[in-house]
Specification:
Its EC number is 6.3.2.4. About 35% of the residues lie in helices and about 20% in strands. It has about 325 residues and is α+β, with helices and mostly antiparallel strands. The chain folds into three domains: about 5-90, Rossmann fold (3-Layer(aba) Sandwich), CATH 3.40.50; about 100-120 and about 185-305, ATP-grasp fold, B domain (D-amino Acid Aminotransferase, Chain A, domain 1, 2-Layer Sandwich), CATH 3.30.470; about 120-180, Dna Ligase, domain 1 (2-Layer Sandwich), CATH 3.30.1490.
Length: about 325
């Protein structure tokens, strides 16, 4: 049974949106959706763009909580979370360490591999020559992408050696650390998780069918041709296996509140492979977490309220003390 949320007890809420990352446009879309939903539910919610005013204004303006609708760097990489910790303002989603780890795809892979969780073979590269060597080692096709950006930012699917230099240069425009990853041919699915620790639960899987099989930035956020299948159409046992895998991946990184993992299921072996996990998923009209929540009986305003009600700090100030503003 769901406990009703007292919106008055939530206090004055900042919806952090926009920011300075490559995903600013999408963040503004997410933030507006969250803002409207919270206001519609009676929450005293206000937009706050860190690119337009310093975060210290959150304390000066008397905000009691923050809903993080920022994506990518300076939003889901632990930096904003760290600032909110210093300000003593509880926030939605994962804490500093989990965010800092999850934004870094190579570090995430190392931790998952250490726990025996399946993820595609990969190489970290620092030049076009190293990218060509990675292609020889991993085989074609191969994915080349920045290690610390959104899942479709600066990404190239390489099928031949003469594409390696351009692919590396594109990825390196976004991050000095570039990741080459084995391409897994098969079903692309995503799995959202809500909650923390032992109480975390996986939502129904969504199978993504993009035009031409390329789920790029446009297909992800703006195309009406991309199909999102929920129910996923996968066998029930296979879906349950993937959900259990994602919960292990979520807990391994220490995530809390919510997140969304991307997975490829090998067409030949049906082995699922973890690609990455997003600790501040999109909340736009095309976004996948609201879609999965709806399939689980949670509408968009309720989802926003539940996430906000779980806002917390890694290190709450002891009773009787105040955080420095």
């Amino acid at each position: 049974m769901t406990v009703p949320i007292d919106v008055r007890a939530l206090g004055k809420v900042a919806v952090l949106m926009g920011g300075r990352s490559a995903e600013r446009e999408v963040s503004l879309m997410s933030g507006q959706g969250v803002l409207q939903a919270l206001r519609g539910a009676g929450v005293d919610a206000h937009p706050f763009d860190p690119a337009q005013q310093p975060l210290c204004e959150l304390a000066r303006q008397g905000f009691a909580r923050a809903f993080i609708a920022l994506h990518g760097r300076w939003g889901e990489d632990g930096t904003v979370q760290g600032a909110l910790e210093l300000l003593g303002i509880p926030y939605t989603g994962s804490g500093v360490q989990a965010c800092a780890v999850a934004i870094d795809k190579t570090l995430t892979k190392r931790l998952w591999q250490a726990e025996g969780l399946p993820t595609p073979a990969w190489r970290r590269v620092d030049s076009a020559a190293a990218t060509r060597a990675a292609l020889q080692a991993l085989g074609a096709p191969m994915i080349v992408k920045p290690a610390r950006e959104g899942s479709t930012i600066g990404l190239t699917k390489v099928t031949a050696p003469d594409q390696c230099e351009a692919a590396y240069r594109l990825a390196a425009q976004h991050d000095l650390e570039v990741l080459c990853e084995q391409f897994i041919a098969g079903d692309e699915v995503t799995c959202a998780v809500l909650g923390s620790g032992a109480s975390a639960r996986a939502l129904p899987l969504i199978r993504i069918v993009a035009p031409g099989g390329d789920y790029d930035y446009h297909a992800k956020y703006f195309s009406d041709d991309t199909r999102y299948l929920i129910p996923s159409g996968l066998p029930a046992e296979e879906e349950a296996t993937i959900q259990a895998l994602v919960l292990r991946a979520y807990r391994t990184l220490g995530c809390r509140g919510w997140a969304r993992a991307d997975i490829m299921v090998d067409a030949a072996t049906r082995q699922p492979y973890l690609l990455e996990i997003n600790t501040a998923p999109g909340m736009t009209s095309h976004s996948l977490v609201p879609m999965a929540a709806r399939a689980a009986g949670i509408d968009y305003p309720t989802l926003c309220l539940q996430l906000l009600a779980q806002a917390t700090l890694d290190n709450p100030a002891p009773a009787g003390t105040e955080a420095a503003a």
